[in-house]
Amino acid sequence: MTSRTIHNAMTIDVEDYFQVSAFAPHIPRESWPALPCRVEANIDRILGLLDAQGIKATFFTLGWIAERYPTMVRQIVDQGHELASHGYGHERASDLTEQQFRNDIGSSKRILEDISGHAVKGYRAPSFSIGTNNLWALDVLHSEGYRYSSSIYPVRHDHYGMPDAPRFAFYPKSEDGLLELPITTVRLMNRNLPAGGGGYFRFFPYALSRWLMQQVNERDGQPAIFYFHPWEIDTGQPRQQNIGMKTRFRHYVNLHRMESRLQALTRDFKWGRMDHIFLTKQ
User: Fold this and answer.
1) Residue 58, CA distances (Å) to 165, 173, 218 in order
2) DSSP of 115-158
3) C-beta pairs of 183-189 under 8 Å, 24+ apart in sequence
4) d(Cα 229, Cα 220) in Å, to the nearest integer?
5) What's the chain's average pLDDT?
6) pTM score > 0.90 for this model?
7) How would residue 281 be classed by pLDDT, with cut points 50, 70 and 90?
8) Over pLDDT 90: what percentage of the chain?
């Protein structure tokens, strides 16, 4: 296998700059409706970038966003992309009770399906917040009609991660149950190195990110799963004050380089939707 024969999964977590988990202590949830939303313009740019390369992707979308921008949601679907759920209001699955989680994923699924007219098959937990202590969430997802999850990141991180999880697609229970699709990692020096996007993609030199994904395609013979957020291409977003240095660095590092790196990534690899890559094998 080579990096030009395997289709990798391009995914976008559709949320705005003020909804990231790291800002939660600084931006009250009740203030969201009054804040300037920039997601529509950013999604327009992303759709143009994908269209230029003929790429179809999966958009994990918040119900909160979909309710306010239904035209944007329909535009995503009308252009041939997969619509999936990111929950309703970007609440971490690990912070919710089982019933709260069920309500969250059920309402977001119904909202997205009512707006788009298409079945929602996939879910991604905010901040990859399904792990060792709340694997029950995968059973709830299955019972609510989801076919796959992409909520586990097999790395060590101070906010998320399940480093002992399988690195590639697996069934937590049985092959007639939910399919879990972990974010991509590369095994180096007895540890998993993140290789699936997000802040790491902005921090690492592009050549390193490309090499890591090539290892997954060529050495492991597996498709990679890459993700990013609309706010990561938005250098004009309002800057948050009174946040810690680590949070500031993680959120703002190399925003000005993100779009050009995405353009290179779309040229250097083959891409597709999550459902087309993984569910057609079932």
Assistant:
1) 23, 24, 23
2) HHSS---EE--GGG--SGGGTHHHHHHHHTT--EE-----S--S
3) 183/128, 183/150, 183/152, 183/153, 183/154, 183/225, 183/227, 184/213, 184/216, 184/224, 184/225, 184/226, 185/153, 185/154, 185/155, 186/212, 186/215, 186/216
4) 26
5) 94
6) yes
7) low
8) 87
